[in-house]
Amino acid sequence: MGMDAVELILRTEDEFSISISDDEAASAFTVGGLYDLILSKLDTSPGCITSKAFYLTRRALVESLGVPRRSIRPGTKLSPILPDELRRAQWQQIRNQIGLAMPPLRIPADLKQRLYKRAFTISGVIAIAACGFALWLGSWPFPAFVLSAILWVGLSVASIYLAERLAAPKLATELPADTAGELARVVLSLNSNSFSPANPDGRLTNEEVWIRLVDIICDQLQVGRDEVVPNARFADDLLVD
């Protein structure tokens, strides 16, 4: 594991007073996997606010997609009812219907990798060309490799940012959750102030575990809450080394 992953696991252990082995950490390659691992080590209370979040999510799905209410259960897979060719339009309808913060669709990991590679390649070509031009003019006081490195890094960051922002509306088709229940959990974490926690016996509830985990990941990795979804991969989506 890289340092980012080690620090994330150590902070998770401290937060929940649990111990996570290297093998367990390696097997939890998604946010949902780490959440399930934490729950397996804690004596938690089921809570009830997840149910409220699920009912709101289900109502938005039913009214936006025109599907029977009984067809949407916590374990219902989202991909069959949100086909690729209609997904972006349907997702916008759901976001408008629910009236709460909702995570956006994501660019698939393999496509994102291709975007990154192309951005690095184009940036490298521009950096080398600019360096050669500066050397040709004979007016650049620093070594050529310094100029190339600075330009490459700066252009790469800028091009990746622009590529994601410009490509996301057209290329983002990956759902932030696999099931309706997972989507409700994400809605809960994005709108925690809109739900009243219930913890009568003093134990952590499943909802509190999820919200605390999201807080840790956001703070440790400096990512947005809408990026921390159950099927987000630490390496590919959250760039954990």
Description:
It is a single chain. The termini are close together. Helix content is 61%, strand content 0%. The chain folds into three domains: 1-47 and 198-241, no CATH class; 49-106 and 172-197, Non-ribosomal Peptide Synthetase Peptidyl Carrier Protein, Chain A, CATH 1.10.1200; 109-171, no CATH class. By secondary structure, it is mainly alpha-helical. Helix 4 (49-65) packs across helix 5 and helix 4 (49-65) packs across helix 8 (180-190). The chain is built from nine helices and no strands.
Quickly list its features.
241 residues; mainly alpha; Non-ribosomal Peptide Synthetase Peptidyl Carrier Protein, Chain A; 3 domains; 9 helices; globular
Strand tally, please?
0
Q: What is the helical fraction, as a range of percent?
A: 55-70%
Q: Describe the largest sheet.
A: none
- What percentage of amino acids are in beta strands? under 5%
Number of helices: 9
Shape: globular
Q: Name the structural class.
A: mainly alpha
Number of domains: 3
Radius of gyration: 22 Å
Along the chain, the helix and strand elements come as HHHHHHHHH
Question: Termini separation (Å)?
Answer: 7 Å
Averaged pLDDT, please? 83
Low-confidence stretches: none
